[in-house]
Each structure stands twice: as structure tokens, then as C-alpha cells.
Amino acid sequence: MMSAAFDEYGSYTSSWSAVCAKSIAEDGDWWNELSSAYQWVMSEMGHKGMPRPDPDAAPLWAWVHWVDSKSRARTRPDRRYPGFRNQYDGLELLHLQVDENRVLCTDFDQYHCVINRWPCAPLDADRWPPAECDRWLDEHWDDPADMKAVQYRKNAIVDPKRLPDRWIQACLWTVTPEDVFDVRRACGKPDTIGNHG
Predict the structure, then answer these.
(1) Residue 183 near residue 97 (C-beta atoms within 8 A)
(2) Helices (H) and strands (E) in the chain, counts
(3) Least confident window among 40-49, 88-97, 146-155
(4) pLDDT tens-place string over residues 135-168
(5) Are 79 and 184 spatial neighbours (Cβ–Cβ below 8 Å)?
(6) What is the C-alpha separation between 124 and 133, in angstroms, rounded?
């Protein structure tokens, strides 16, 4: 799909209407829960100076940092990891190199606060004593949506350089052939299908 878009348009941008239709067909309840979080990401991308390139554009998700089972940051996942078995057969893993001004980075764990419409504690809250975390959540659980929006912008959007031990995800609007550094099978042996380096 991506290489066909490269050939025809010179880049690949996902379609919001196609994503909606496919997601609703596969699991409408899941999509109803996630769509507001996707809308939030799209508005934050615009706020960061990355306007939607087309009214039907949908964000593309990628990993900036992958954290292995020992909490070590990696630039790519270990494709031999048992958790991947039979999940990604026949798919490819793209390694992208994209200018940081074209991506909005979010902390994977913190983004779940956005998905679930929960309050979003500061990033260092995972180092707080449990009682302090509980107290903070109790105090902020019923915060209005506009206060949670401030928390999300402050605590879910991150600079990947300052969090080497976290799972960091990136959203971007478009992938060009120049962005694709390497293409490999998603699982199995580490043979390279294509490499610019």
C-alpha cells in the first residue's frame, strides 16, 4: 500500500475515513473509545505547527523508543521477542528517519490517560510513593475536561531525548520514500529487505 502511494503520489498519508470505516467494521466499540484520543493527537499536531495536510488525513503512529523486557531503550524492537510470534506474520517493519519537527511524540503510558479520559499525573509520578500517587489521583479524578487537556499537553507530550527508559510513540502525517531508512520482515530472522545505509 505504501509503495503504491509512493509511486502514485510521491508519499503516503493515511485516510481518516478509511481508518474509521475499517475500525468500525472490525470493532465499533473500540473505535468509539479511541477516536477522541486520535482527535486530540491531531489537534496537538496542529498546535505544534504541523497542520493536517488534507481534510481526510489521519496520523501515522511509529515508535521512537522501544523498551525491551529489561527496560532498556532500543531504537528498534527485537523481532525474536516471543510476544511477537504469530501476530505480525507477513508484515514489514519500517525503520524511518524523520525530522523531529514533523512528529508529535507522546509517552505510551501517559497517552493511555488521554484514551481513558483520566487525569494525567506528571511524568515523574512513577517515582512517587504509592500514597502520594493515590492522593494526586483522588484530588484530580474529577477535574473538568479543560484541566485534563492541560495535563495531557504537559504530561503526555514528551521530548524523546529526555526519557530514554520510556516507550515513546510518534505521530506524523506523511511518510516519503526518503524517510524510509530500512525495511525488514516484522518477525523472524534479521535479514534486510532494503537498506539505504
Answers:
(1) no
(2) 5, 10
(3) 88-97
(4) 999 999 999 999 999 999 999 999 877 666 778 8
(5) yes
(6) 10
